[in-house]
Design brief:
199 residues, elongated, alpha+beta
Length: 199
């Protein structure tokens, strides 16, 4: 993490590289300009992330509205004891439950199916399900909280990834520039040293 002294040193280096300085090389100026561009990009990552988050929210809100218009909730009666399903993963395992359910469709007829149910479900109890226009079990439309959480996550991920990318590129630019400057100083010092040794 950059402390106050490192930040001040970086600002001084940029100032010396960009303004009139008899010791400034073309490489210093090019490096400073590249770093300024990357710093500008890092600053712009925040509004870019906000724009992306807003776009994600608008798209998912439209999808949720369409889903809500084609689905409806029903209170279904549990017609069989819940059955546990254990799913083993590489690091952990999870358990889900399913049971037979029945409900009255929009056409007034009884419908039966198997649905995922909470662990505490009991035979004869009721569960809330979502069905589509032809009374097939489907998932619930996304809630406003879920849509906002998704948009916030997108914005946060873009902002963090963008800042890390810019920081990494700045570090690479400085590293390459320092290596080039070191080689240039070494070549020039050999020339100067040879002239000094002649006298």
């Amino acid at each position: 993490m950059m402390d106050g002294n490192s930040l001040r040193a970086g600002v001084r280096w940029l100032a010396h590289a960009l303004w009139r300085n008899p010791l400034r090389r073309r490489l210093d100026r090019v490096t400073a300009i590249a770093i300024l561009v990357l710093l500008g990009a890092a600053v712009l990552m925040v509004p870019a992330a906000i724009v992306a988050g807003n776009a994600n929210y608008a798209a998912e809100a439209r999808e949720a509205a369409v889903a809500a218009s084609t689905r409806r909730p029903v209170e279904a009666v549990v017609t069989s004891a819940p059955v546990a399903h254990v799913i083993s993963g590489a690091e952990h395992e999870s358990t889900s439950y399913s049971a037979g359910v029945s409900w009255t469709g929009a056409d007034g007829r009884a419908h039966v199916d198997t649905a995922a149910v909470p662990a505490a479900t009991v035979l004869g109890g009721t569960v809330r399900l979502w069905v589509d226009r032809v009374d097939r079990i489907t998932v619930a439309p996304r809630s406003e909280a879920q849509v906002r959480a998704s948009a916030g996550a997108v914005a946060f991920e873009i902002a963090v990834a963008g800042e890390l990318l810019c920081a990494g590129l700045i570090w690479c630019v400085r590293g390459i520039a320092d290596a080039c400057a070191e080689r240039a100083w070494t070549r020039e010092w050999k020339i100067v040293e040879a002239k000094w040794l002649e006298h």
